[in-house]
Amino acid sequence: MKCYNELICNTLPQIQQESLLWINTHKDEMIPYQGNFWYKINSINFIQNCPSLVSYCQSLDLKLREVAILIAEDRNGVPLHTDEGPLISKLNIPILNTKNTITHWYDKNNNLLDSLEVIKPIIFNSSIPHKVKINENAQLPRIVLACMFFNDPIDYLKND
Question: What local confidence, expressed as pLDDT, does residue 100 receive?
Answer without folding.
Answer: 97
